[in-house]
Amino acid sequence: MFNDRTTPMSLLLTRRSGKARDMIAPGPDEAQLRRILSAAARVPDHGKLAPWRFVVVPESERAALAEALDAIYVAEKPEAGRIEREAIRDFARQAPTLVVTLFRPKPESHIPLAEQAASAAAATMTLAHAAHAEGFMSCWLTGWPAYSEGVTRLFGEPSDSIVGFMFLGTPGKPLEERPRPDLDDIVSVWHAT
Fold it and tell me: H-helix or E-strand containing 162?
Protein backbone atom coordinates (compact mmCIF):
# COMPACT_ATOMS: atom_id res chain seq x y z
CA MET A 1 0.00 0.00 0.00
CA PHE A 2 1.32 3.45 -0.92
CA ASN A 3 0.99 6.59 1.21
CA ASP A 4 -0.25 4.64 4.23
CA ARG A 5 -1.48 7.29 6.68
CA THR A 6 -1.91 5.03 9.72
CA THR A 7 1.23 6.46 11.39
CA PRO A 8 3.72 9.18 10.48
CA MET A 9 6.44 6.57 9.90
CA SER A 10 4.20 4.38 7.75
CA LEU A 11 3.49 7.41 5.57
CA LEU A 12 7.20 8.12 5.15
CA LEU A 13 8.03 4.47 4.46
CA THR A 14 5.29 4.08 1.86
CA ARG A 15 5.48 7.55 0.28
CA ARG A 16 5.02 7.40 -3.45
CA SER A 17 4.61 10.27 -5.85
CA GLY A 18 2.45 9.86 -8.90
CA LYS A 19 2.46 11.34 -12.36
CA ALA A 20 0.89 14.78 -12.56
CA ARG A 21 -0.77 13.90 -15.85
CA ASP A 22 -2.57 10.99 -14.16
CA MET A 23 -4.06 13.07 -11.33
CA ILE A 24 -7.76 13.75 -11.19
CA ALA A 25 -10.03 15.87 -9.02
CA PRO A 26 -10.42 16.51 -6.26
CA GLY A 27 -7.35 18.36 -5.20
CA PRO A 28 -7.00 19.98 -1.79
CA ASP A 29 -9.69 22.47 -0.89
CA GLU A 30 -8.70 25.88 0.45
CA ALA A 31 -8.47 24.74 4.10
CA GLN A 32 -6.49 21.62 3.21
CA LEU A 33 -4.10 23.58 1.02
CA ARG A 34 -3.56 26.08 3.82
CA ARG A 35 -2.65 23.20 6.20
CA ILE A 36 -0.32 21.73 3.57
CA LEU A 37 1.45 25.07 3.09
CA SER A 38 1.58 25.68 6.85
CA ALA A 39 3.36 22.35 7.27
CA ALA A 40 5.75 23.19 4.43
CA ALA A 41 6.70 26.43 6.18
CA ARG A 42 7.83 24.55 9.33
CA VAL A 43 11.07 23.20 7.87
CA PRO A 44 14.57 23.78 9.25
CA ASP A 45 15.48 27.37 8.43
CA HIS A 46 18.84 28.50 9.82
CA GLY A 47 18.59 32.20 10.63
CA LYS A 48 14.79 32.24 10.27
CA LEU A 49 15.12 33.67 6.76
CA ALA A 50 12.21 31.88 5.06
CA PRO A 51 14.19 31.71 1.80
CA TRP A 52 11.24 30.21 -0.04
CA ARG A 53 7.89 31.34 -1.32
CA PHE A 54 4.85 29.40 -2.48
CA VAL A 55 2.80 30.56 -5.45
CA VAL A 56 -0.58 28.89 -5.88
CA VAL A 57 -1.82 28.82 -9.46
CA PRO A 58 -5.62 28.48 -9.30
CA GLU A 59 -7.31 26.14 -11.73
CA SER A 60 -9.05 29.17 -13.24
CA GLU A 61 -5.63 30.55 -14.25
CA ARG A 62 -4.21 27.40 -15.80
CA ALA A 63 -5.20 28.27 -19.38
CA ALA A 64 -3.51 31.66 -19.01
CA LEU A 65 -0.41 29.95 -17.60
CA ALA A 66 -0.39 27.52 -20.53
CA GLU A 67 -0.44 30.41 -22.99
CA ALA A 68 2.28 32.30 -21.07
CA LEU A 69 4.53 29.22 -20.98
CA ASP A 70 3.98 28.69 -24.71
CA ALA A 71 4.90 32.30 -25.51
CA ILE A 72 8.06 32.14 -23.39
CA TYR A 73 9.04 28.78 -24.88
CA VAL A 74 8.67 30.08 -28.44
CA ALA A 75 10.66 33.22 -27.55
CA GLU A 76 13.47 31.05 -26.18
CA LYS A 77 13.19 28.34 -28.87
CA PRO A 78 11.80 29.90 -32.08
CA GLU A 79 12.25 26.59 -33.91
CA ALA A 80 9.91 24.78 -31.49
CA GLY A 81 7.49 22.44 -33.18
CA ARG A 82 3.82 21.79 -32.56
CA ILE A 83 4.36 18.70 -30.38
CA GLU A 84 6.85 20.48 -28.11
CA ARG A 85 4.50 23.42 -27.73
CA GLU A 86 1.55 21.17 -26.93
CA ALA A 87 3.63 19.45 -24.23
CA ILE A 88 4.49 22.84 -22.69
CA ARG A 89 0.83 23.91 -22.67
CA ASP A 90 -0.24 20.54 -21.24
CA PHE A 91 2.35 20.92 -18.45
CA ALA A 92 0.39 23.88 -17.08
CA ARG A 93 -2.94 22.08 -17.14
CA GLN A 94 -1.97 18.93 -15.21
CA ALA A 95 -3.58 17.95 -11.90
CA PRO A 96 -6.24 19.87 -9.98
CA THR A 97 -3.79 21.91 -7.85
CA LEU A 98 -0.47 23.55 -8.66
CA VAL A 99 1.93 25.21 -6.22
CA VAL A 100 5.20 26.68 -7.45
CA THR A 101 8.00 26.78 -4.88
CA LEU A 102 10.51 29.59 -5.27
CA PHE A 103 13.94 29.88 -3.73
CA ARG A 104 14.34 33.48 -2.59
CA PRO A 105 17.94 33.75 -1.34
CA LYS A 106 19.06 36.30 1.18
CA PRO A 107 22.67 36.94 0.08
CA GLU A 108 23.11 39.67 2.69
CA SER A 109 22.71 37.06 5.45
CA HIS A 110 25.64 35.27 7.05
CA ILE A 111 23.76 32.00 6.44
CA PRO A 112 25.42 30.19 3.51
CA LEU A 113 23.36 30.16 0.33
CA ALA A 114 23.66 26.36 0.21
CA GLU A 115 21.85 26.14 3.56
CA GLN A 116 19.19 28.52 2.32
CA ALA A 117 18.71 26.41 -0.83
CA ALA A 118 18.49 23.26 1.31
CA SER A 119 15.71 24.88 3.33
CA ALA A 120 13.79 25.70 0.14
CA ALA A 121 14.14 22.09 -1.05
CA ALA A 122 13.05 20.86 2.38
CA ALA A 123 9.99 23.11 2.19
CA THR A 124 9.10 21.60 -1.17
CA MET A 125 9.52 18.03 0.08
CA THR A 126 7.51 18.80 3.19
CA LEU A 127 4.77 20.19 0.96
CA ALA A 128 4.70 16.79 -0.77
CA HIS A 129 4.59 14.90 2.54
CA ALA A 130 1.83 17.16 3.85
CA ALA A 131 -0.23 16.61 0.70
CA HIS A 132 0.10 12.85 1.19
CA ALA A 133 -0.86 13.25 4.87
CA GLU A 134 -4.04 15.00 3.70
CA GLY A 135 -4.85 12.05 1.45
CA PHE A 136 -3.68 13.44 -1.89
CA MET A 137 -0.92 12.55 -4.30
CA SER A 138 1.92 14.86 -5.22
CA CYS A 139 4.32 15.20 -8.12
CA TRP A 140 7.36 17.50 -7.97
CA LEU A 141 8.40 18.51 -11.49
CA THR A 142 11.10 20.77 -12.87
CA GLY A 143 12.16 20.54 -16.52
CA TRP A 144 12.46 23.50 -18.85
CA PRO A 145 9.94 25.72 -16.99
CA ALA A 146 11.95 25.55 -13.75
CA TYR A 147 15.12 26.80 -15.42
CA SER A 148 13.69 29.46 -17.71
CA GLU A 149 14.30 33.04 -16.55
CA GLY A 150 11.15 34.09 -18.37
CA VAL A 151 9.03 31.56 -16.50
CA THR A 152 10.66 32.48 -13.19
CA ARG A 153 9.67 36.12 -13.78
CA LEU A 154 6.03 35.01 -14.07
CA PHE A 155 6.11 33.91 -10.44
CA GLY A 156 8.77 35.82 -8.55
CA GLU A 157 11.44 38.43 -8.24
CA PRO A 158 14.56 38.68 -10.44
CA SER A 159 16.78 36.98 -7.84
CA ASP A 160 14.36 34.05 -7.33
CA SER A 161 14.70 30.62 -8.85
CA ILE A 162 12.12 27.87 -9.16
CA VAL A 163 12.64 24.88 -6.89
CA GLY A 164 9.80 23.00 -8.47
CA PHE A 165 6.25 22.79 -9.66
CA MET A 166 4.27 20.74 -7.15
CA PHE A 167 1.17 19.18 -8.65
CA LEU A 168 -1.43 17.84 -6.21
CA GLY A 169 -4.52 15.76 -6.76
CA THR A 170 -6.14 12.36 -6.49
CA PRO A 171 -4.60 9.32 -8.18
CA GLY A 172 -6.36 8.57 -11.44
CA LYS A 173 -4.43 5.32 -11.93
CA PRO A 174 -2.99 2.78 -9.51
CA LEU A 175 0.51 3.67 -8.35
CA GLU A 176 3.39 1.33 -9.07
CA GLU A 177 6.61 0.98 -7.12
CA ARG A 178 9.82 2.22 -8.66
CA PRO A 179 13.32 0.93 -7.95
CA ARG A 180 14.68 2.13 -4.61
CA PRO A 181 18.35 2.15 -3.61
CA ASP A 182 19.62 -0.68 -1.45
CA LEU A 183 20.60 0.74 1.94
CA ASP A 184 23.90 -1.16 1.83
CA ASP A 185 24.79 0.89 -1.27
CA ILE A 186 24.00 4.28 0.24
CA VAL A 187 24.72 3.98 3.98
CA SER A 188 28.13 3.74 5.59
CA VAL A 189 29.41 3.96 9.13
CA TRP A 190 32.26 6.31 9.88
CA HIS A 191 35.06 5.13 12.13
CA ALA A 192 37.98 7.19 13.42
CA THR A 193 41.31 5.95 12.07
Answer: strand 161-171
Q: Identify which of 138, 71, 67 has the alpha carbon closest to the alpha carbon of residue 101.
A: 138
Mean pLDDT, each 10-residue run in order, the chain (193 residues): 95 96 98 98 98 97 98 97 97 97 98 98 98 97 97 96 98 94 97 93
Q: Percent helix, strand and coil across the chain, each rounded to 5?
A: 45, 15, 40
Distance in Å from the first CA to the final CA of the chain: 43
Radius of gyration for the chain, computed over Cα atoms and rounded to the nearest angstrom? 18
Q: Return d(Cα 179, Cα 185) in angstroms, integer.
A: 13
**Residues 156, 102 contacting (CB under 8 angstroms):** yes
Please name every residue paired with 55 in a beta bridge, in sequence order, or none if there are none. Answer: 100
The pTM of this model reads: 0.95
Q: How many CB atoms lie within 10 A of CB 192?
A: 3
Let me know: does 104 contact 156? Beta carbons within 8 Å. Answer: yes
